[in-house]
Amino acid sequence: MFRNPPIIGIDIGHHSVKAVVLNPKKEQLELSAFAEITLPSSVINDQHSVNTSALLSAIRKLKKSLPFNARKVVIALPDSAVISKVIQLDTNLSDEEAEFAVTQALSASSPFPVEELSLDFFPLSSDAFVETATTVPFQVFAARKDTIDSRIKALKKAGLHPGVVELQTHALLWLGEYIAERAAMQELWGIVDIGMHCTEFSIKPPGGAAYHREMAFGTSLVSGNMAGGSEEPGGFAPELEQAEVFTKQLADHLKRQFQLYNSTHPRSVLKGIWLCGGGQHVVLEELLARLLGVEASWINPFRYFPCSKKLGQIASNSYYGQYAVAAGLAIRGASQ
Protein backbone atom coordinates (compact mmCIF):
# COMPACT_ATOMS: atom_id res chain seq x y z
CA MET A 1 0.00 0.00 0.00
CA PHE A 2 2.77 2.45 0.92
CA ARG A 3 6.10 3.02 -0.79
CA ASN A 4 9.47 4.42 0.18
CA PRO A 5 11.09 6.99 0.50
CA PRO A 6 10.08 9.20 3.49
CA ILE A 7 7.39 11.76 2.71
CA ILE A 8 7.25 15.30 4.09
CA GLY A 9 3.88 16.97 4.42
CA ILE A 10 4.39 20.73 4.65
CA ASP A 11 1.61 23.06 5.75
CA ILE A 12 2.43 26.68 4.89
CA GLY A 13 0.13 28.84 7.00
CA HIS A 14 -0.06 32.57 7.59
CA HIS A 15 1.69 32.33 10.95
CA SER A 16 3.91 29.27 10.73
CA VAL A 17 5.14 26.47 8.50
CA LYS A 18 4.68 22.95 9.84
CA ALA A 19 6.18 19.68 8.63
CA VAL A 20 5.38 16.04 9.33
CA VAL A 21 7.64 13.26 8.03
CA LEU A 22 6.18 9.78 7.57
CA ASN A 23 8.31 6.79 6.65
CA PRO A 24 6.42 4.10 4.66
CA LYS A 25 7.12 0.63 6.10
CA LYS A 26 5.21 -2.23 4.43
CA GLU A 27 1.54 -1.72 5.36
CA GLN A 28 1.99 1.12 7.81
CA LEU A 29 3.41 4.61 8.13
CA GLU A 30 5.96 5.45 10.82
CA LEU A 31 6.28 8.93 12.26
CA SER A 32 9.88 10.08 11.73
CA ALA A 33 9.73 13.75 12.70
CA PHE A 34 7.60 16.85 13.03
CA ALA A 35 8.53 20.51 13.41
CA GLU A 36 7.12 24.04 13.27
CA ILE A 37 8.76 27.37 12.45
CA THR A 38 7.04 30.72 13.01
CA LEU A 39 6.81 32.94 9.93
CA PRO A 40 7.09 36.73 9.64
CA SER A 41 3.68 38.33 9.21
CA SER A 42 4.50 39.50 5.67
CA VAL A 43 5.16 36.08 4.10
CA ILE A 44 1.74 35.52 2.48
CA ASN A 45 -0.12 38.29 0.67
CA ASP A 46 -3.84 38.76 0.03
CA GLN A 47 -3.55 36.85 -3.29
CA HIS A 48 -2.10 33.81 -1.40
CA SER A 49 1.35 34.14 -3.01
CA VAL A 50 4.34 33.91 -0.69
CA ASN A 51 7.51 35.90 -0.18
CA THR A 52 9.93 33.30 -1.53
CA SER A 53 13.02 34.52 0.34
CA ALA A 54 11.22 34.64 3.71
CA LEU A 55 9.67 31.22 3.17
CA LEU A 56 13.03 29.81 2.06
CA SER A 57 14.62 30.99 5.30
CA ALA A 58 11.90 29.25 7.33
CA ILE A 59 12.15 26.04 5.28
CA ARG A 60 15.91 25.88 5.80
CA LYS A 61 15.41 26.20 9.56
CA LEU A 62 12.71 23.54 9.39
CA LYS A 63 14.97 21.10 7.54
CA LYS A 64 17.37 21.00 10.48
CA SER A 65 14.70 19.12 12.47
CA LEU A 66 13.89 16.65 9.68
CA PRO A 67 15.62 13.41 8.62
CA PHE A 68 18.49 13.97 6.20
CA ASN A 69 17.09 11.54 3.61
CA ALA A 70 13.62 13.13 3.54
CA ARG A 71 13.27 15.12 0.32
CA LYS A 72 9.89 14.33 -1.25
CA VAL A 73 7.30 16.96 -0.34
CA VAL A 74 3.53 17.37 -0.59
CA ILE A 75 2.07 20.84 0.03
CA ALA A 76 -1.42 22.30 0.17
CA LEU A 77 -3.15 25.45 -1.00
CA PRO A 78 -5.96 27.12 0.97
CA ASP A 79 -9.34 26.31 -0.56
CA SER A 80 -9.94 30.04 -1.00
CA ALA A 81 -6.89 30.16 -3.33
CA VAL A 82 -8.32 27.52 -5.66
CA ILE A 83 -11.14 27.76 -8.21
CA SER A 84 -13.24 24.58 -8.12
CA LYS A 85 -15.82 23.86 -10.82
CA VAL A 86 -17.69 20.92 -12.28
CA ILE A 87 -18.32 21.19 -16.03
CA GLN A 88 -19.89 18.90 -18.61
CA LEU A 89 -17.72 17.78 -21.54
CA ASP A 90 -18.44 15.60 -24.55
CA THR A 91 -17.29 12.02 -24.07
CA ASN A 92 -15.51 11.84 -27.44
CA LEU A 93 -13.01 14.62 -26.81
CA SER A 94 -9.28 13.96 -26.99
CA ASP A 95 -7.04 15.08 -24.11
CA GLU A 96 -6.03 18.19 -26.03
CA GLU A 97 -9.65 19.01 -26.89
CA ALA A 98 -10.74 18.47 -23.30
CA GLU A 99 -8.03 20.82 -22.04
CA PHE A 100 -9.10 23.46 -24.56
CA ALA A 101 -12.75 23.10 -23.48
CA VAL A 102 -11.80 23.43 -19.81
CA THR A 103 -9.72 26.52 -20.59
CA GLN A 104 -12.63 28.09 -22.47
CA ALA A 105 -15.05 27.37 -19.62
CA LEU A 106 -12.70 28.95 -17.08
CA SER A 107 -12.00 32.01 -19.21
CA ALA A 108 -15.69 32.89 -19.00
CA SER A 109 -15.90 32.70 -15.19
CA SER A 110 -12.44 33.13 -13.68
CA PRO A 111 -11.56 36.47 -12.04
CA PHE A 112 -8.01 35.96 -13.39
CA PRO A 113 -6.79 35.66 -17.00
CA VAL A 114 -6.74 31.97 -17.86
CA GLU A 115 -3.10 32.16 -18.99
CA GLU A 116 -2.19 33.01 -15.37
CA LEU A 117 -3.75 29.79 -14.07
CA SER A 118 -2.48 26.25 -13.52
CA LEU A 119 -5.17 23.66 -14.26
CA ASP A 120 -6.01 20.16 -13.13
CA PHE A 121 -9.12 18.26 -14.21
CA PHE A 122 -10.46 14.71 -14.26
CA PRO A 123 -13.76 12.90 -15.03
CA LEU A 124 -16.12 12.20 -12.14
CA SER A 125 -18.24 9.46 -13.71
CA SER A 126 -17.63 5.72 -13.87
CA ASP A 127 -16.76 3.95 -17.10
CA ALA A 128 -20.18 2.30 -17.21
CA PHE A 129 -21.89 5.67 -17.16
CA VAL A 130 -19.58 7.11 -19.82
CA GLU A 131 -20.42 4.31 -22.24
CA THR A 132 -24.07 5.37 -22.41
CA ALA A 133 -23.73 9.15 -22.01
CA THR A 134 -22.92 11.86 -24.52
CA THR A 135 -21.40 14.13 -21.87
CA VAL A 136 -19.51 13.48 -18.65
CA PRO A 137 -18.94 15.74 -15.63
CA PHE A 138 -15.35 16.85 -15.05
CA GLN A 139 -13.97 18.21 -11.80
CA VAL A 140 -11.78 21.23 -12.54
CA PHE A 141 -9.30 22.87 -10.18
CA ALA A 142 -7.38 26.04 -11.03
CA ALA A 143 -5.01 28.29 -9.11
CA ARG A 144 -2.84 31.25 -10.02
CA LYS A 145 0.55 30.08 -11.25
CA ASP A 146 2.31 32.57 -9.00
CA THR A 147 0.52 31.12 -5.96
CA ILE A 148 1.96 27.69 -6.73
CA ASP A 149 5.30 28.70 -8.24
CA SER A 150 6.31 30.95 -5.33
CA ARG A 151 5.96 28.00 -2.94
CA ILE A 152 7.63 25.51 -5.27
CA LYS A 153 10.58 27.84 -5.84
CA ALA A 154 11.31 28.15 -2.11
CA LEU A 155 11.09 24.40 -1.56
CA LYS A 156 13.40 23.60 -4.47
CA LYS A 157 15.95 26.18 -3.36
CA ALA A 158 15.97 24.47 0.03
CA GLY A 159 16.87 21.17 -1.66
CA LEU A 160 13.42 19.57 -1.40
CA HIS A 161 11.42 17.89 -4.15
CA PRO A 162 7.77 19.02 -4.23
CA GLY A 163 5.67 16.54 -6.18
CA VAL A 164 2.00 17.08 -5.23
CA VAL A 165 -0.06 20.21 -4.55
CA GLU A 166 -3.32 19.41 -2.76
CA LEU A 167 -6.29 21.31 -1.41
CA GLN A 168 -6.10 21.89 2.34
CA THR A 169 -9.55 20.33 2.74
CA HIS A 170 -8.42 17.19 0.94
CA ALA A 171 -5.43 16.88 3.29
CA LEU A 172 -7.74 16.95 6.31
CA LEU A 173 -10.08 14.40 4.74
CA TRP A 174 -7.14 12.10 3.95
CA LEU A 175 -6.20 12.23 7.62
CA GLY A 176 -9.79 11.62 8.69
CA GLU A 177 -10.07 8.59 6.42
CA TYR A 178 -6.77 7.20 7.69
CA ILE A 179 -7.81 7.59 11.33
CA ALA A 180 -11.22 6.04 10.70
CA GLU A 181 -9.58 3.00 9.10
CA ARG A 182 -7.06 2.55 11.91
CA ALA A 183 -9.72 2.96 14.60
CA ALA A 184 -12.22 0.74 12.70
CA MET A 185 -14.82 3.50 12.93
CA GLN A 186 -18.12 3.01 11.13
CA GLU A 187 -19.80 6.31 11.98
CA LEU A 188 -19.34 9.50 9.94
CA TRP A 189 -17.14 12.20 11.46
CA GLY A 190 -16.32 15.64 10.10
CA ILE A 191 -13.25 17.80 10.69
CA VAL A 192 -13.30 21.37 12.02
CA ASP A 193 -10.05 23.29 11.45
CA ILE A 194 -9.91 26.34 13.74
CA GLY A 195 -7.50 29.01 12.57
CA MET A 196 -6.59 32.53 13.57
CA HIS A 197 -8.94 34.24 11.13
CA CYS A 198 -11.21 31.53 9.75
CA THR A 199 -12.67 28.15 10.66
CA GLU A 200 -13.35 25.38 8.15
CA PHE A 201 -15.79 22.49 8.31
CA SER A 202 -15.08 19.49 6.05
CA ILE A 203 -16.75 16.11 5.68
CA LYS A 204 -16.76 13.31 3.11
CA PRO A 205 -20.12 11.49 3.07
CA PRO A 206 -20.05 7.90 1.73
CA GLY A 207 -20.24 7.84 -2.05
CA GLY A 208 -20.43 11.62 -2.27
CA ALA A 209 -18.19 14.58 -2.97
CA ALA A 210 -16.31 16.36 -0.22
CA TYR A 211 -18.40 18.97 1.59
CA HIS A 212 -16.50 22.08 2.72
CA ARG A 213 -17.51 25.40 4.20
CA GLU A 214 -15.37 28.29 5.44
CA MET A 215 -16.45 30.67 8.21
CA ALA A 216 -14.92 34.09 8.89
CA PHE A 217 -14.38 33.28 12.55
CA GLY A 218 -11.15 32.42 14.35
CA THR A 219 -9.10 32.60 17.50
CA SER A 220 -7.92 36.15 16.79
CA LEU A 221 -11.29 37.26 18.19
CA VAL A 222 -10.23 36.12 21.65
CA SER A 223 -8.76 39.02 23.64
CA GLY A 224 -5.62 38.58 25.71
CA ASN A 225 -2.17 37.36 24.75
CA MET A 226 -3.23 35.96 21.39
CA ALA A 227 -2.09 39.04 19.48
CA GLY A 228 1.30 37.50 18.79
CA GLY A 229 -0.32 34.86 16.61
CA SER A 230 1.25 31.92 18.44
CA GLU A 231 -0.16 28.51 17.63
CA GLU A 232 2.31 26.72 19.87
CA PRO A 233 0.92 24.26 22.44
CA GLY A 234 0.88 26.02 25.77
CA GLY A 235 1.46 29.41 24.10
CA PHE A 236 -1.85 30.86 25.23
CA ALA A 237 -4.06 30.18 28.24
CA PRO A 238 -7.26 32.28 28.19
CA GLU A 239 -9.56 32.78 31.10
CA LEU A 240 -12.26 30.13 31.43
CA GLU A 241 -14.93 32.73 30.71
CA GLN A 242 -13.19 33.70 27.46
CA ALA A 243 -12.98 30.07 26.38
CA GLU A 244 -16.67 29.53 27.16
CA VAL A 245 -17.72 32.58 25.14
CA PHE A 246 -15.56 31.55 22.19
CA THR A 247 -16.85 27.96 22.33
CA LYS A 248 -20.48 29.15 22.31
CA GLN A 249 -19.78 31.42 19.34
CA LEU A 250 -18.09 28.55 17.51
CA ALA A 251 -21.08 26.32 18.23
CA ASP A 252 -23.45 28.92 16.73
CA HIS A 253 -21.39 29.06 13.53
CA LEU A 254 -21.19 25.26 13.28
CA LYS A 255 -24.91 24.77 13.90
CA ARG A 256 -25.65 26.77 10.76
CA GLN A 257 -23.17 24.70 8.78
CA PHE A 258 -24.62 21.43 10.13
CA GLN A 259 -28.10 22.56 9.08
CA LEU A 260 -26.89 23.23 5.55
CA TYR A 261 -25.09 19.89 5.44
CA ASN A 262 -28.08 17.94 6.78
CA SER A 263 -30.42 19.58 4.26
CA THR A 264 -28.32 18.26 1.36
CA HIS A 265 -27.17 14.96 2.92
CA PRO A 266 -30.10 13.74 5.05
CA ARG A 267 -28.99 10.11 4.85
CA SER A 268 -25.36 10.70 5.87
CA VAL A 269 -25.79 11.52 9.54
CA LEU A 270 -22.94 13.27 11.30
CA LYS A 271 -21.83 11.35 14.39
CA GLY A 272 -19.06 13.66 15.59
CA ILE A 273 -16.34 16.14 14.74
CA TRP A 274 -12.58 16.12 15.11
CA LEU A 275 -11.15 19.48 16.10
CA CYS A 276 -7.79 20.63 14.79
CA GLY A 277 -5.82 23.79 14.16
CA GLY A 278 -4.34 26.22 16.65
CA GLY A 279 -7.42 26.81 18.84
CA GLN A 280 -6.97 23.99 21.32
CA HIS A 281 -6.62 26.43 24.23
CA VAL A 282 -9.76 28.45 23.47
CA VAL A 283 -12.30 25.68 22.73
CA LEU A 284 -13.86 23.52 25.43
CA GLU A 285 -14.63 20.25 23.66
CA GLU A 286 -17.13 18.95 26.23
CA LEU A 287 -19.13 22.18 26.11
CA LEU A 288 -18.98 22.24 22.31
CA ALA A 289 -20.24 18.64 22.08
CA ARG A 290 -23.14 19.42 24.40
CA LEU A 291 -24.13 22.53 22.44
CA LEU A 292 -23.95 20.75 19.07
CA GLY A 293 -25.47 17.45 20.08
CA VAL A 294 -22.63 15.46 18.48
CA GLU A 295 -19.35 14.10 19.80
CA ALA A 296 -16.37 16.46 19.65
CA SER A 297 -12.75 15.56 20.24
CA TRP A 298 -9.39 17.22 19.68
CA ILE A 299 -7.40 15.24 17.18
CA ASN A 300 -3.80 14.17 17.75
CA PRO A 301 -2.70 12.82 14.35
CA PHE A 302 0.50 11.35 15.78
CA ARG A 303 -1.44 8.89 17.92
CA TYR A 304 -2.10 6.72 14.87
CA PHE A 305 1.50 6.29 13.70
CA PRO A 306 4.10 3.98 15.25
CA CYS A 307 7.36 5.74 16.08
CA SER A 308 10.48 5.47 18.21
CA LYS A 309 10.06 5.39 21.99
CA LYS A 310 11.71 8.80 22.41
CA LEU A 311 9.63 10.46 19.73
CA GLY A 312 6.51 8.68 20.96
CA GLN A 313 6.85 10.27 24.39
CA ILE A 314 6.83 13.70 22.77
CA ALA A 315 4.08 12.94 20.24
CA SER A 316 1.73 11.51 22.89
CA ASN A 317 0.86 15.08 23.97
CA SER A 318 -2.81 15.59 23.14
CA TYR A 319 -2.27 19.12 21.80
CA TYR A 320 -0.92 18.51 18.31
CA GLY A 321 -4.02 19.31 16.28
CA GLN A 322 -2.15 22.10 14.46
CA TYR A 323 -0.23 19.39 12.57
CA ALA A 324 -3.38 17.84 11.07
CA VAL A 325 -2.96 19.33 7.58
CA ALA A 326 0.74 18.43 7.40
CA ALA A 327 0.01 14.87 8.54
CA GLY A 328 -2.76 14.50 5.95
CA LEU A 329 -0.42 15.74 3.23
CA ALA A 330 2.24 13.20 4.20
CA ILE A 331 -0.38 10.42 4.08
CA ARG A 332 -1.41 11.67 0.63
CA GLY A 333 2.17 11.52 -0.61
CA ALA A 334 2.75 8.03 0.76
CA SER A 335 -0.33 6.67 -1.00
CA GLN A 336 0.97 7.42 -4.50
Automatic annotation (TrEMBL):
Signal peptide (from-to): none
Pfam families, per the entry: PilM_2
CDD domains: ASKHA_NBD_PilM
Domain SHS2: 7-172
SMART domains: FtsA
Protein name: Type IV pilus assembly protein PilM
Lineage of origin: Bacteria, Pseudomonadati, Pseudomonadota, Gammaproteobacteria, Vibrionales
